[in-house]
Write a structure and sequence with these properties.
The structure is a single chain. The chain is α/β, with parallel strands linked by helices. The protein has one domain: Rossmann fold (3-Layer(aba) Sandwich). It is built from 13 helices and six strands. Strands 2-3-1-4-5-6 form a six-stranded parallel beta sheet, with helices on both faces. Helix 6 links the parallel strand 4 and strand 5. Helix 6 crosses helix 8, helix 9 packs across helix 12 and helix 10 packs across helix 12. It starts with 8 loop residues before the first helix and ends in a 5-residue tail after the last helix. 46% of the residues are buried.
Length: 325
Amino acid sequence: MQLPTLSSPRIRGLAAAFLFAGLPLAATAAPITVLFVGNSFTYGEAAGGPNIVKPYNRANVTDLNSLDIGGVPGLFKAFTTERGLSYNVSLETQPGVGLDWHYNNRLPLINQSWDHVVLQSFSTLDAQHPGNPASLIQYSSLLANLLVAKNPSVDIHLDATWSRADQTYLPTGAFYGQSIYTMEKVVSAGYHAANAANPHIDDVIETGRAWARTWETGFADLNPYDGIDAGKVNMWAPDSYHASVFGYYLEALMFFGDITDTDPLTIGYDQVARDLGISASQAFVLQTLASQTLLGVPEPETMALLFTGFAGLMFLRRKTRPTNA
């Protein structure tokens, strides 16, 4: 996986945001427009869990399908509002489909001028051929070409999603018998191939990699089918396919950091986390993991190393803070 370099715009933006964390952010003169295109991973399907994310903040986002959904875009919108940022957020979603379906059925809704567009396809890349990125590559490129024609300055992001427990631990799964990390790596590679195939696509948001860090650090349980270990959270919904509130919160943090170039750690213990039933300590860990993933910090192996790494970042912040700040 290719990590962002220290000279990349994302790193420079996040580093600046980290150094000036806590300072109020001024809203832009004109709202920045963002469109999220995806399926149930974008609109926050509860799948047997508490139905909190799907309707969240729906009054403050625009559902282009008029289904009154807030979803993960609603979480993102709330983050921007809390930080004083002006974003007009829209979503176009349909359950159980890839980008090919959106292109063939909802193109008039998508094909407008946007400042940012996030594209998320089927969870296994291809429903009929799991792990095959051909359809993702083809249709992300077709959409990117149209979007750039509407606005040459549009930033197009691809959302590389998480490993599914049902696809890994059940005999019917496409990744059965393999590590829980395998599916995420295959999905990420597919999205990076799509990114490389079209120069108009700006980056890949590594949501699945951020999820993997929750298992690597011991924050979340690896296998929901054998019970959830004490002190750990379940990143999946009860169907072991969709996300729990922890999973969707982390996805929204990744969107926030990537799109706004603002470190997720600047959010603090926010109203979104409170509304989702996420504690202050849990929110802090998820924000730290999102921040580290966006910055390309090497994966921590334990929670102790995670907090040691964060302490080092805090030390760097103090050492580099201007004396007149």
